[in-house]
Amino acid sequence: MDGDGEARRPLLSEPASADERSVISHPPVGTEEHDVEQQEDMDPGDPQHFSDRAPWLRAAVLGANDGLVSVSSIMLGVGAGSSDRHTLLLSGLSALVAGALSMAVGEYISVSSQRDSETADVETEREEQARGPAARRRELEELVKIYVDRGLEEELARKVAIAFTKRDPIRTHARDELGIDVDELANPLQAALASLGSFVVGAGIPLLAAAFSNDQRIRLACVLIASTAALLLFGAVGAWLGGAKRIRAALRVLVGGWLAMGITAGTGRLFGEDPA
Fold it and tell me: How does it sit in the membrane (predicted)?
C-alpha cells in the first residue's frame, strides 16, 4: 500500500537487519529453542562407548587377576602349612609356570576351534555363491530379510543388498549373516601369548613379594599386602574399561580374592605338617 500514514511493510526480498539476524541465529532466552541450543553447545561430543575399549585389554586384566589369585592363594596355603622358604617359593614358581602354560594351551585350543568354525562358515558361503544364479538369488533374499529385520524398508534393503553383493558377496554375507569379519579372523597364537603373558604378570606379584624376606610371617604378610593392592588395582582397571563404578568393582574383586586366599590358607594350615 502507498498511503503516507501507513508504515511501509518490509518486502520478503529485503535482507534481514543485524538485530533480526541475531534473533534468528540465537533464540530468545527462556524459549524451548534457546534451551535446546544451550544443551547442544554443552554437548562434549559423541558419548564414550565402553564396548569399544580394547577387548584384548579387558582379557589381559582378567588373565592377570587369575594369575594373581591362584598363585597368591597357593603360596599362602603352602606358607600356612610349612615354614620352609624354598618350598614356598618353589610352589609359587611352579604354580606360575603351570598356570601360564595351562592358560596358553587352553586359549590356543579354544581360539583355534573358533577360527576353524569361522573358516568353515565362510567356505560354505563361498560354495553357495558358486552354485549358480538360483543359489545367489536365495542368498540375496537372505540379505534383504536381514536388513529388513534391522529396520530398513524392503525396497531400500534390496538396494543395499544388491550394492553390497556386487562389491563382495562373500565378505557381505560373512559380516551381516554370520557376524564374521574375514579380515580379522581369530588368531590362536596371539590369544595364547596374550593369556600367557597376562597370567605371568599377575602371578609374579606375590612371588616377588615373598622373595626378599627370610622371616616366614613377613613373607606371608608381604604376599597378602601385595596381592590386596593388586586386586584393588585390577578391579578398578576392569571397572574403568567396562564403565562401571570403580570402588564397588574393586571391592568386589578384593573380597573374591580374599575368600580364595583365606580358604586356601586355612586348608594349608589344617593339613600342614609344619604350621607357621
Answer: Multi-pass membrane protein
d(CA 269, CA 276): 8
pLDDT of amino acid 239: 79
How far, in Å, CA of 77 to CA of 93, rounded? 14
DSSP 215-250: -HHHHHHHHHHHHHHHHHHHHHHHHHHHT--HHHHH
Within a domain: residue 49? Answer: no
Nearest-5° Cα angle at 52, 170 to 252: 130
Domain, as residue range, for 252: 54-270
In a domain, 201, yes or no: yes
Domain total in the chain: 1
- Number of C-alpha atoms within 13 angstroms, CB side, residue 126? 8
- Spatial separation of the C-alpha atoms in residues 200 and 161, rounded to whole Å: 47
pLDDT digits (tens, 9 = 90+) for 112-146: 998 999 899 889 888 888 888 888 889 899 899 99
In order, the DSSP letters of 201-214 are HHHHHHHHHHTT-S
How far is Cα 241 from Cα 136, in angstroms, rounded to an integer? 42
- For residue 226, what are the CA distances in angstroms to 42, 208, 264? 43, 9, 17
The model's pTM is 0.70
135 falls within a domain: yes
Classify 29 as helix, strand or coil.
coil
* Within a domain: 83: yes
Q: Could you report the per-residue pLDDT of 165-174, keeping only the tens digit for each?
A: 888 888 888 8
Q: First-to-last CA distance in the chain?
A: 108
Residue partners of 27: CB distance under 8 A and separation at least 6: 33, 34, 37
